[in-house]
Amino acid sequence: MTEVVIPYKPRDLQKTIHNELKRWNVLVCHRRFGKTVFAINELLKGAMMSRLNNPRFAYLAPTYKQAKSIAWDYLKEYSRPIPGIKINESELRIDYPNGARIQLYGCDSPDALRGIYLDGAILDEYAQMPRNLFGEVIRPALSDRTGWAIFIGTPKGHNAFHELYEHAENDPDWYAKVYRASETSIIDAAELEDAKRIMTDDEYEQEYECSWSAAVKGAIYAQEIAAARKQNRIGFVPIDPALDLMTFWDLGISDAMSIWFAQAVGKEIRFIHYYENTGEGMAHYIKYIKDFATEHSLRLGEQFAPHDIEVRELSTGKSRKDAAREMGFIFRTVHQHKVQDGIETARRLFSRCWFDAKGCAHGLDCLSLYRREYDEKRQVFRDNPLHDWTSHCADAFRTFAMAWNDQMTSGVKAHGPAIINKGFNPLKR
Length: 429
Description:
By secondary structure, the protein is α/β, with parallel strands linked by helices. It has 2 domains: 12-207, P-loop containing nucleotide triphosphate hydrolases (Rossmann fold, 3-Layer(aba) Sandwich); 230-427, Nucleotidyltransferase, domain 5 (2-Layer Sandwich). It has 14 helices and 17 strands. It has helices at 12-20, 35-49, 64-79, 132-143, 160-169, 181-184, 189-198, 201-207, 222-230, 282-295, 320-326, 339-349, 361-369, 391-415; strands at 24-29, 56-61, 86-88, 93-95, 101-106, 120-124, 148-153, 174-179, 234-235, 245-251, 257-265, 268-277, 300-305, 331-333, 353-356, 372-375, 380-385. The strands form 3 sheets. An 8-stranded mixed β-sheet has the order 3-4-5-2-6-7-1-8, with helices on both faces. The chain has a 7-stranded mixed β-sheet with strand order 9-15-12-11-10-13-14. Strands 16-17 form a two-stranded antiparallel sheet. The N and C termini lie far apart (78 Å). Mean pLDDT is 89; it is low at 411-429.
């Protein structure tokens, strides 16, 4: 047996965490805490000490690019003293002489994770990951050999990371800790004061004090989401069998679909459910909606989709709108519009919207984290939203906004102001 010394000297807090971890762990850490260095060394410890056959460990970041820029150099640095390692730059993985492997992944390509098994996983910046990633992909991968997971990051509002931390706090089988800069003494007090003078209150509270309520930097609907929570418009929203079920869609790339389910009473829009999936045909989504309506004794109202539902496929000469009609499902097409126009319309309508917290949980995560691209060189936010896992949901919400706006405009012109108080039904075609 060869003794290998890893060039890692953990801080006192890092050492404590290494010693106290359980199978499931949630760590909420301020910036510059050293969470990535801690995470890489915990993976390395697991890989080197595992007695299992061909152990597999994963580090996951919100995107593949982030995984590479944040963790890859650390993984190579701390692994180099180990003789016989094989570094694969193209796949961001290192194979170790005992058969173990540590690989980096991005959650922007979740299909790359399907079918693998894992003995341990770090989910870094979990607040920026899709809420269904762990349950649908990572948790099953850990089942075969009772692997462990560490969720780590800085808060980004009240989303899946916040819910997971609250669960961990109250479950004895979980380990949960919050590390605020004002309490850890890792960053010098003078440096924190300087940061506080330069940063906005929300930025400082979120990044250094781990505030769950601070607005996400660049978040497009931050004020609207905050107002909805303050006014208790996010919570339990009953499904009313007396009201028709409307749906608002986004047709994504590679058949990715996002759908908001809603009911309307006058000017009030009640969002009762959100659903998204990939790799399924139109028949799957239509069946899902019909099954939902049957389960809750609802009549199907109008269904709205963006303009690209009318694009005809070369192989069949039919559009997805035609295909849906053949299945007895009639869409109304929302006219093409600029993204910014749709966002502004959605903002204006947000005060009328109510959301069921459980049925719309993933949709609310997406809307909360839907944000503008940041120009690192110019240090400003661009006008365009960042395209990531939140985009399809936000686009479906824009479908709602523009559909509602079109209906109300045509309603006023064709039927007079009274039509506004009757919702969509009088305008059925």
